[in-house]
Design brief:
Layout lengths: L1 E6 L4 H13 L4 E6 L23 H8 L2 E4 L5 H8 L3 E4 L7 H6 L2 E5 L7 E2 L2 H8 L4 E6 L8 E7 L8 H22 L10 E2 L7 E2 L4 H4 L2 H15 L6
Parallel strand pairs: 1-2, 1-4, 2-3, 4-5, 6-10
Antiparallel strand pairs: 5-7, 7-8, 8-9
Helix pairs in contact: 1-6
């Protein structure tokens, strides 16, 4: 059995993940939904993540896809996972998970940044701002924020015709693709010791990007693309 963690409201990343999982595996899928408690207190100037959802109840969507759907409170999540003993737990949407969950289960996350270089929130924005590689890291969670064990990493190519938002969407597509691929990638991995630990020493966890830095994002991205045009390199990476 594969468990997919999400929120108890329609959620874009979850919907995209469920569609891909339906096509990629015949395994039993249980979608566990916890309450959405997070409230945005900070309004960004630049919205770079896809947000439009299909307005359909989670249970209805899961029924149509042939998946089991169950709502559960956060305080009962660990006990329920102990009952289920899933092969994998895929994180489509969740708050901070208890340490006992990440210690006792294979909890898979797809982080929209190259770890450990770009940890924390607004990873795409920080990669653009600081000139880091734009990437996606598939990893097993541990108690450390954006640490854990490396499963797979992909660097997102940039092209001379790219815009800030086309590159952000390409990264998002890879994020979903890797998360859905994890079922196959980990099928023969029975021990966490088989995976390489992500070294987060001397790295920082980014917070939401401040407005003054957001105002520079388009310029910084345009300079990056301009460099591609000047060099004639049609693939930055």
């Amino acid at each position: 059995m594969i468990v997919i963690l999400t929120y108890n409201v329609p959620h874009r990343k979850t919907q995209d993940l469920l569609f891909q999982v339906k096509l990629k595996t015949e395994k039993e899928i249980l979608v566990l939904a916890t309450p959405m408690k997070y409230k945005k207190k900070y309004k960004p100037l630049v919205q770079h993540r896809p947000s439009k959802v299909i307005q359909v109840d989670n249970k209805v969507l899961c029924n149509k896809l042939g998946f089991t759907y169950e709502e559960i409170s956060n305080d009962k999540l660990f006990d329920r996972l102990c009952q289920l003993q899933p092969e994998l737990v895929l994180v489509a949407g969740a708050g901070l998970l208890d340490a006992e969950i990440v210690r006792n289960f294979f909890v898979v996350n797809s982080h929209p940044g190259k770890l450990p270089d770009v940890r924390g929130l607004d990873a795409f924005k920080w990669a653009v701002y600081n000139g880091n590689d734009i990437g996606v890291t598939l990893h097993l969670l541990d108690e450390n924020s954006d640490g854990g064990l490396l499963i797979k990493e992909e660097i997102i190519p940039l092209y001379p015709y790219d815009t800030f938002h086309s590159a952000a969407y390409r990264q998002y597509e890879v994020e979903i693709e890797l998360l859905s691929d994890s079922i196959n990638l980990l099928k023969d991995v029975k021990s966490k010791n088989k995976l390489k630990k992500i070294n987060i020493e001397n790295t920082v966890v980014n917070k939401r990007m401040e407005h003054d830095k957001e105002k520079e994002l388009y310029y910084k991205f345009e300079q990056r693309v301009k460099k591609l045009n000047n060099t004639g390199d049609f693939n930055e990476n």
